[in-house]
Specification:
Layout lengths: L1 H12 L3 H4 L1 H15 L6 E5 L5 H9 L4 E6 L2 H4 L9 H4 L6 E5 L12 E7 L8 H11 E12 L4 H13 L9 H10 L2 E11 L3 E10 L2
Parallel strand pairs: 1-2, 1-4, 2-3, 4-5
Antiparallel strand pairs: 5-7, 6-7
Protein name: Methyltransferase domain-containing protein
Organism: Nostoc paludosum FACHB-159
GO molecular function, one term: methyltransferase activity
Length: about 220
């Protein structure tokens, strides 16, 4: 039910998403790109890729980067006929980049498929975050890494936003503290390799973690 609500909401937002959240998207995804330290030879899975902005950033530096993006919103991925650039249109010149409609909790890929898995600004929408993390672990290569960036409930304004959104936004599930987030990663058999919290502007307090498979 939750994924149906999220899909409907983002299908409706697709046409204005990049414009409405331009500053936030630019700041958070530029930070994520630097943090992730992705090699040009890595094969990447972007979970909840939205309109493909992270793909566009990566391809601007490494035009041969192998990337697969998944999202549950068809409209965020679709080729635009209205002048807006959605994911498939942004990356149409790169045959090694593909997009699929899929759930984070049911990834349509073989085991050990990706060197790097990223997910930005979406973890608070996952209705079963542990299932999503276990799926990421399954499709990650043994020496690969997962990088997740999301809102952090340790920040007061994010905590307030979390409370408000739970009451007014049916798509919103839950924000996590950094400790809660790390425990979820560990429960999914990941080891947190590198992590921090970071603030963008007055409101947005986020956390990021790079995790690897436990030995």
């Amino acid at each position: 039910m939750s994924e149906t609500i999220v899909r409907k909401q983002y299908d409706q937002l697709a046409g204005v998403y990049d414009l409405r959240w331009k500053s936030y998207i630019t700041n958070t995804l530029s930070f994520l790109k630097k943090w992730a330290e992705i090699s040009p030879t890595d094969t990447i899975l972007d979970v909840a890729c939205g309109t493909g902005e992270f793909e566009r950033l990566l391809l601007a530096e490494y035009s041969s980067q192998q990337i697969v993006g998944i999202d549950i919103s068809d409209k965020m991925l679709a080729m635009s006929t209205t002048g807006y650039a959605y994911a498939k249109q942004k990356c149409s010149a790169y045959p090694q980049v593909s997009f699929q409609i899929a759930s984070a909790s049911n990834l349509p890929f073989d085991n050990d498929s990706f060197d790097v898995i990223v997910s930005a600004n979406a973890f608070h929408y996952f209705d079963d975050p542990l299932a999503a993390l276990k799926e990421m672990r399954r499709v990650l290569k043994p020496d690969g890494k997962v990088i997740i960036l999301d809102w952090c409930r340790d920040y007061l304004l994010c905590k307030i936003c979390d409370i408000i959104l739970k009451g007014f936004d049916p798509a919103h599930q839950q924000c996590y503290t950094q400790n809660e987030f790390h425990r979820l990663l560990e429960d999914a058999n990941f080891a947190v390799y590198r992590a921090t919290r970071i603030r963008f502007g007055v409101v947005w307090g986020l956390m990021v973690a790079t995790a690897i498979l436990k030995n």
